[in-house]
C-alpha cells in the first residue's frame, strides 16, 4: 500500500469484523533499533485489540522465540545483525505455517527489491518505514498504516485459523441462481456455521470483446499480480493493460520489472503523455495518480498530483473512471486482494457503461477489502479464486464464449 494510503475510514469494507476485544491479536516486533522496537511496541499496545507478545533485535532471536511467543503477526525489519529479515522469514514460516509477516523497510531501491523478494517467500505485506528516528516518531502516516495492516491482516489470520480448526459439516443441495452461493463461489453450507454467507448478486457477462484491461490491487497485490499475469500470458497482446497497485515510489518501478518477467510483456511505470499501446503494461507510479485521456487521435497516459483518493495515491478509482471515459463498454476490469474499498466506484462506472468486472474471492485474498467492496456493488460478472481469474481473463481477451 502507498505511504499515502492511511487506515481505511469508518464503515469501509474490510471483509472481517474485529468485534468485542476478548483475545487481542498477538504481535512480535523484530528490529535492530531499540527506538523502533519501543515506539512500534507502544503504538501496538495502545490499541485494545492488539498486544505485543515479544520484541527482538535480530532474526535469530525471533526465530528461536516463535513457538513460545506464538504471535499472529510479526513486524519484521530487513537489515539486522546476526540474522537479517530475509533469512529469518522462511524459518519463521516453517515453525508456524500461516504466520502473518509484515516487512518494514526504508524506501531505498535495495530494500524495495528485498521487500518484494520477501513477498515471494511468503510475507503477507510490507510497509515503508521513514528513514531516521526523528521522522519515524513524527510520522502519523506510518503509524496509521502500520496499525491498520496489523489489525486487518491479524484478523484475517485469526478468521482462517478458526475455520481450519472447525469440524466439517455436511453439505446440502442448492439451486443454481446468479448469486455467489449458488454460482459456486461460496459453499451452500459453510464448514464453519458461524461464518456469514455472501448475499450479493452477480451480473451476466456483457458480450463485448475488451479493448483494454484495467486492474486494481493493494495488500497482497504483488504476489497476486505475478500469479495473475502468469495465467493470462500472451492473451494480453492485443490490448493495453493499465494497473494501479497501492505502493510508494521506488517500489512501483521494481514491481513493473517483476511483472514484465511474469507476463512476458513490456511493463513499466506510466509516463505523462506516453501513448497507450496494445501488449504493454502500464503501472501507476507511486505518489501519482495515473489516468488515461484523449490527445488528438491517440489515448495517452496522464499523471496527476492531486490529493489522495480513498486515502490512496495512486488510487484505483481515478484510473478506472478515466478508462471508462475512453473505452466504454469495451472495458474489462479486475480487482485483486487489498485493504479498504478503493476501486468500488470505478467498478460501478465500468458496470454502468456495460463493461465487465471480475474480482478475486475471499478465500484466496490476503485481505478481502477491495474485492469485497467491488463485489458488493452488484456490478461484477464473476468472483473467482486467484488462479481462475487470470485464466478467465485470458479466455475473454481471446474472444472465447463466456
UniProtKB/TrEMBL annotation:
Q: Which CDD domains match?
A: CheB_Rec, REC_CheB-like
Q: What exactly does this protein do?
A: Involved in chemotaxis. Part of a chemotaxis signal transduction system that modulates chemotaxis in response to various stimuli. Catalyzes the demethylation of specific methylglutamate residues introduced into the chemoreceptors (methyl-accepting chemotaxis proteins or MCP) by CheR. Also mediates the irreversible deamidation of specific glutamine residues to glutamic acid.
Q: What class of enzyme is it?
A: hydrolase
Q: What does the UniProt PTM comment say about this protein?
A: Phosphorylated by CheA. Phosphorylation of the N-terminal regulatory domain activates the methylesterase activity.
What does the entry's domain section say? Contains a C-terminal catalytic domain, and an N-terminal region which modulates catalytic activity.
Name the chain's protein: Protein-glutamate methylesterase/protein-glutamine glutaminase
- Response regulatory domain location is 26-144
Gene name, Swiss-Prot/TrEMBL: cheB
Amino acid at each position: 500500500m502507498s505511504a499515502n494510503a492511511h487506515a481505511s475510514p469508518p464503515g469501509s469494507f474490510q471483509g472481517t469484523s474485529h468485534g468485542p476485544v476478548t483475545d487481542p491479536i498477538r504481535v512480535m516486533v523484530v528490529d535492530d533499533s531499540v527506538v523502533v522496537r519501543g515506539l512500534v511496541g507502544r503504538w501496538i499496545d495502545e490499541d485494545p485489540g492488539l498486544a505485543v507478545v515479544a520484541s527482538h533485535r535480530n532474526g535469530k532471536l525471533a526465530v528461536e522465540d516463535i513457538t513460545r511467543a506464538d504471535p499472529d503477526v510479526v513486524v519484521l525489519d530487513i537489515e539486522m545483525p546476526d540474522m537479517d529479515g530475509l533469512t529469518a522469514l522462511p524459518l519463521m514460516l516453517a515453525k508456524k505455517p500461516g504466520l502473518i509477516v509484515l516487512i518494514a523497510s526504508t524506501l531505498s531501491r535495495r530494500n524495495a527489491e528485498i521487500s518484494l523478494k520477501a513477498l515471494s517467500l511468503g510475507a503477507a505485506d510490507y510497509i515503508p518505514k521513514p528513514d531516521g528516528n526523528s521522522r519515524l516518531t513524527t510520522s502519523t502516516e506510518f503509524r496509521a498504516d502500520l496499525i491498520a495492516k496489523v489489525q486487518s491482516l491479524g484478523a484475517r489470520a485469526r478468521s482462517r485459523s478458526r475455520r481450519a480448526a472447525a469440524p466439517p459439516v455436511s453439505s446440502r443441495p442448492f439451486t443454481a441462481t446468479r448469486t455467489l452461493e449458488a454460482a459456486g463461489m461460496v459453499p451452500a453450507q459453510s464448514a464453519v456455521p458461524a461464518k456469514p454467507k455472501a448475499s450479493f448478486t452477480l451480473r451476466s457477462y456483457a458480450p463485448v470483446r475488451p479493448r483494454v484491461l484495467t486492474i486494481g490491487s493493494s495488500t497482497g497485490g504483488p504476489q497476486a499480480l505475478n500469479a495473475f499475469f502468469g495465467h493470462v500470458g500472451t492473451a494480453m497482446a492485443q490490448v493495453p493493460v493499465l494497473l494501479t497497485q497501492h505502493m510508494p515510489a521506488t517500489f512501483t518501478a521494481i514491481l513493473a520489472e517483476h511483472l514484465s518477467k511474469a507476463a512476458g510483456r513490456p511493463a513499466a511505470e506510466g509516463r505523462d503523455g506516453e501513448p497507450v499501446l496494445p501488449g504493454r503494461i502500464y503501472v501507476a507510479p507511486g505518489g501519482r495518480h495515473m489516468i488515461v485521456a484523449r490527445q488528438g487521435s491517440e489515448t495517452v497516459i496522464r499523471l496527476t498530483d492531486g490529493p489522495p483518493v480513498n486515502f490512496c495515491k495512486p488510487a484505483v478509482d481515478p484510473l478506472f473512471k478515466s478508462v471508462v471515459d475512453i473505452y466504454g463498454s469495451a472495458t474489462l476490469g479486475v480487482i485483486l486482494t487489498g485493504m479498504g474499498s478503493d476501486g468500488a466506484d470505478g467498478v460501478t462506472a465500468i458496470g454502468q457503461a456495460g463493461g465487465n468486472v471480475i474480482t478475486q474471492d475471499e478465500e484466496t485474498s490476503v485481505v478481502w477489502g477491495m474485492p469485497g467492496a467491488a463485489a458488493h456493488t452488484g456490478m461484477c460478472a464473476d468472483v473467482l479464486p486467484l488462479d481462475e481469474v487470470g485464466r478467465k481473463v485470458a479466455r475473454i481477451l481471446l474472444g472465447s464464449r463466456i
